[in-house]
Amino acid sequence: MTLLHLSFYAAFALSSLGLAFHRTHLISALLCLESMMLSMYVALSMWPIQTQTSSPTLLPILMLTFSACEAGTGLALLVASTRTHGSDHLHNFNLLQC
Q1: pLDDT at residue 98 above 60?
Q2: Which of 4-8, 71-75, 86-90 has the highest average model confidence (pLDDT)?
Q3: What is the pLDDT of residues 43-71, one digit of tens each?
Q4: Distance spanning both ends of the chain, measured CA to CA
Q5: What number of other Cβ atoms are within 10 A of residue 29's Cβ?
Q6: Dihedral sign, Cα of residue 63, residue 67, residue 73, residue 74
Q7: Which of 30, 35, 50, 92 could be 74's S-S partner, Cβ–Cβ 3.0 to 4.6 Å?
Q8: Helices then strands (H, E): number in the chain?
């Protein structure tokens, strides 16, 4: 395993650990999701260089598009939940209550 692979795996693992353990605010959960998507994007962008293929792949662009949609949806949920509940603390949200 090269140092490049190790750094991508470490970035993804640290962001998933941050998502698992630091879930007090919705914005911190969204930032952890974005860092996971960013590490996957960089890994997929470097993959043709590592395999020495000459054809460009569309997968990183597709992932970047989905990441932008996910960020927009997350920020819209953040604004809506802050307006209805008053804060972005995740313990204030009760999914069983109408």
Answers
A1: no
A2: 71-75
A3: 888 887 778 877 777 888 888 899 999 99
A4: 50
A5: 19
A6: positive
A7: 30
A8: 3, 0
pLDDT, position 8: 87
Q: What percent of the chain has pLDDT over 70?
A: 94
The whole-model pTM stands at 0.79
Enter the DSSP assignment of 86: S
Q: Which of 30, 45, 33 is nearest to 76 (CA)?
A: 30
- Residue from 39, 87, 91, 84 nearest 64 by CA: 39
Bridge partners (DSSP) of residue 25 are 89
Q: Quote the CA–CA distance of 51 and 10 in Å, as a whole number.
A: 21
CATH code of domain 1-92: 1.10.287.3510
Q: Helix crossing, 26-51 with 59-85: angle to 10°?
A: 180
In the numeric block, the tokens 């962008």 are attached to 45
